[in-house]
Amino acid sequence: MAAFQINDTVDITDVVCPTTFVKAKVALEELDEGQILSIHMNDGEPVQNVPRSIKEEGHKILKLIDNADGTYDLLVQKVGE
């Protein structure tokens, strides 16, 4: 499996929906096109909603990693402006 060059990380484990997506979106806006953001989030609503919302924004979901501790890391590549 190819390793990804992560350009930035945002931890949204301390916030609840819909603020989770807002925080992730703001972090993505800080990146340049093609850069990769790692989003650290809790299981449950964030894992169900954040990837879908980011995809709807037109960004590319690269990988969802189960950390086996109730959290996940979502790798997202920024697409376009």
Task: Give an overview of the whole structure.
The chain is α+β, with helices and mostly antiparallel strands and 81 residues long. It has one domain: TusA-like domain (Translation Initiation Factor IF3), CATH 3.30.110.40. The protein is 28% helix and 31% strand. It is built from 2 helices and 4 strands. It has a 4-stranded mixed beta sheet, with helices on one face. Helix 1 crosses helix 2. It starts with 7 loop residues before the first strand and ends with a strand. The mean pLDDT is 93.
- In angstroms, what is the radius of gyration? 12 Å
- Uncertain spans, ≥5 residues at pLDDT below 50? none
Going across the biggest sheet, name each strand in turn: 1-2-4-3
Strand portion: 25-35%
Mean pLDDT: 93
Q: Give me the CATH fold name.
A: Translation Initiation Factor IF3
H/E series, N to C? EHEHEE
Supply the number of helical segments.
2
**Alpha-carbon distance between the termini?**
28 Å
Helix amount: 25-40%
Counting structural domains, the number is 1
Second rung of CATH, namely the architecture: 2-Layer Sandwich
* Structure summary, number of beta strands: 4
- What's the overall geometry? globular
CATH class, please? Alpha Beta
The secondary structure category is: alpha+beta
In CATH terms, the superfamily is TusA-like domain
